[in-house]
Amino acid sequence: MFARSAALRLSQQLSRAVGSRGYADQAMSFTFASQNQVFYNNADVRQIDVPSFSGNFGILPLHVPSLAVLKPGVITVYEESGSTKIFVSSGIITINEDSSVQILAEEAVSVADLDGPASRDILAKSLALVASASTEEAKAEALIAVEVAEELVKAAEG
Prior knowledge:
Layout: H1 2-17, E1 28-34, E2 38-45, E3 47-50, E4 57-59, E5 66-70, E6 73-79, E7 82-95, E8 101-110, H2 116-132, H3 136-157
Parallel strand pairs: 1-8
Antiparallel strand pairs: 1-2, 3-4, 3-6, 5-7, 6-7, 7-8
Helix pairs in contact: 2-3
Keywords: ATP synthesis, CF(1), Hydrogen ion transport, Ion transport, Membrane, Mitochondrion, Mitochondrion inner membrane, Transit peptide, Transport
Domain ATP synthase F1 complex delta/epsilon subunit N-terminal: 28-108
GO molecular function: proton-transporting ATP synthase activity, rotational mechanism
């Protein structure tokens, strides 16, 4: 039943696009914010690449509606004028039936603003927290900090 319903919805979405515009001509309404900054507010974008725990994936117009948890990494947003890379520590992404996309990140910063040496320092401090953790809970929290810091270093140096 679910598969039949999903196939019907996809068929309806595709039929709206056929004969009118191709993927490259379409844009998605995109909203992206963190606790301290709004990066996009109902902007028209062409494609979004996101890191999630189910694997990195790209979002194009007419993407199947989805909800995913973001893992630490770089989100790449493709607009007509070029692309923008933003590092996120974690968050959620919602892809709606109308092709609108929302990302809410716990922490986010433009990759251009990252500092390589500072990122490596954060990683070193996170590793030290793992080594000094006295409880399983403290160790788990420190390992999460290490995962974020490792991705932060990759983003800053890559």
